[in-house]
Amino acid sequence: MALINCVECEKQLSDQAAACPHCGHPNPAFAETKAAPETADEQRARISGASKKDGDEKPAKKNGCLVGCLSLFVGVVILGAIGSMIEDTTPSSSPSQKSTPKVDNSWVPDGFTRYNSKVAIRWSPNGSYSCSYGQRCIQMEVVPRRGCGNLYAELNKIDANGNNVGYTNETTTNVGAGQKAILKFDTYGTFKTFQVSKISCY
After folding, report:
1. C-alpha distances out from residue 39 to 10, 43, 54, Å
2. Its pTM surpasses 0.85
């Protein structure tokens, strides 16, 4: 074994060394007897864990701990979001304290329909009334819960296509609580049926 000077840094190295231990430059004497010596860059890459042979440059190895911790954090966040969605869609085991208030229909007479909290209504049967002046008419019976100083009702006239083609109205006064008021709506025109639009009791 003999000592020679490095052609790059001029420091001494063994003629059996593949590269200068000081600067990493390849040993030309070693290259003559050994095939494909490492360059200084290749040697540094090999020592750091990456290879740069044949121009295939590979990035340095990532820090495994950092990648693992980041993956764990992302997993926890995803699991938390899924758990939250499941909890939101799971019905509560305890019944709600809120309940729909019970509607008191005890004041509504048999055969009548509750229109609102103040009055109940029904249509008089066909043949139980007649129209004035030969016009088209309908008769409504109204019973107020607590009485009406003024009772007003309005009906829309609906054609065969469901269109509103006009209206008719009727009113009366001083109807007592539970007393039946008779409202007859005389009207005219071409239409198919009547539809309640408004009933006021005050």
Report:
1. 17, 6, 11
2. no
The tens digit of pLDDT for each residue in 34-74 reads 545 666 677 667 777 655 455 555 555 556 667 677 778 87
Task: Name which of 144, 133, 149, 146 is nearest 186 in CA terms.
Answer: 133
Q: What phi-psi label fits residue 193: left (phi over 0), alpha (psi between -120 and 50 degrees) or beta?
A: beta
- Give the end-to-end CA distance of the chain in Å, rounded to a whole number: 123
Enter the tokens of residue 198. 């408004």
Structure tokens at 1: 């074994």
**pLDDT for position 22:** 86
Asked if the model's pLDDT at residue 156 lies above 70, the reply is: yes
Percent of the chain residues past pLDDT 70, beyond the cut: 75
For range 15-32, the mean pLDDT: 78
Domains defined for the chain, CATH in brackets: 3-55 (no CATH), 113-201 (2.60.40)
